[in-house]
Design goal:
215 residues; 2 domains; 9 helices; 11 strands
Length: 215
C-alpha cells in the first residue's frame, strides 16, 4: 500500500531539510520526498501517517556484534533480578556460564527489538555465529560491514553515542528510488536530536514496513 509519512521536519541528510515535509513509500521504495502538499497532491489516494518531530533516514548501529554477542538483554520477567538494561562486562560473564541456547536466542531477539526502538535499520557485523546471523536476517535489519578499525568499546544501543551527529549516525541519505528505511524522533530539530539521542524514537520503518511505533 502506498503510504505517505509526514512530519514537521524531514531531514533527508545530504540535502536541505524540508519543513512540513513528507516521504511517500510504495512497497519498500521511496517514490517521492518533499513538501507535504506536493507529495500528497501527487499521491492523492495514499494512506497518510502523521508523526511528531523529525523524520530522518534509519540509523546505523556500529555496536551490532557486541550488543548481540557480548550483552544480555533481560526478559521483562527477569527485571526484579537483573534489571531492565543490557548486562555487559563482568555482569554478562557471570551470567554466560548458566545461559542455555533458548535463553541466549531470546536475548538476541530482544536486542534486535531494542535496536528497532532506537531507529536502527542497519547493523554492523560480521556475525560469525549462525544463530545470530539468522536472527539478524529474520529481523529485516540490513547487515553492513563493521566500523573502521574494528569493534568499539562500551557498546550502546543509541547510534548517536558513536556516530556523534545525524550524518555520522544514519545509514545513508533518503533518496527517491532508495529503500524506505526511515526513523522518526520526537524532537524539534537536528540539534535537539543529536543532543537527546535515539531514545526519542517514536517510529521505525524498515523496508517500507512500520516495525516500531511508540505507544
Amino acid at each position: 500500500m502506498l503510504t505517505v509519512h509526514a512530519a514537521p521536519l524531514v531531514l533527508p541528510v545530504g540535502a536541505a531539510g524540508v519543513e512540513g515535509g513528507a516521504v511517500a513509500v510504495d512497497g519498500d521504495r521511496i517514490v517521492a520526498l518533499g513538501p507535504y502538499d506536493e507529495v500528497t497532491a501527487a499521491h492523492p489516494t495514499a494512506r497518510v501517517r502523521r508523526w511528531p518531530g523529525v523524520l530522518t533516514p534509519g540509523l546505523r548501529q556500529w555496536d551490532g556484534v557486541p550488543l548481540l554477542t557480548r550483552c544480555y538483554h533481560p526478559d521483562p520477567r527477569e527485571a526484579d533480578e537483573l534489571g531492565e538494561q543490557p548486562l555487559t562486562g563482568a555482569d554478562f560473564e557471570a551470567l554466560a556460564g548458566r545461559m542455555d541456547e533458548p535463553r541466549r536466542a531470546g536475548s538476541v531477539r530482544r536486542g534486535l527489538q531494542r535496536m528497532l526502538r532506537h531507529g536502527t535499520t542497519h547493523v554492523a557485523g560480521p556475525f560469525d555465529d549462525h544463530a545470530v546471523r539468522t536472527a539478524v536476517a529474520r529481523s529485516g535489519l540490513t547487515a553492513v560491514p563493521g566500523p573502521p578499525g574494528g569493534l568499539l568499546d562500551a557498546p550502546d544501543l543509541d547510534p548517536f553515542v558513536h556516530g556523534g551527529d545525524l550524518p555520522g549516525s544514519v545509514h545513508g541519505p533518503l533518496t527517491v528510488g532508495g529503500r524506505a528505511d526511515l526513523a522518526v524522533f520526537d524532537v524539534p530539530d537536528e540539534a535537539a536530536l543529536a543532543a537527546a539521542g535515539a531514545g526519542t524514537c517514536v517510529a521505525t520503518v524498515l523496508g517500507g514496513r512500520l516495525v516500531h511505533r511508540r505507544r
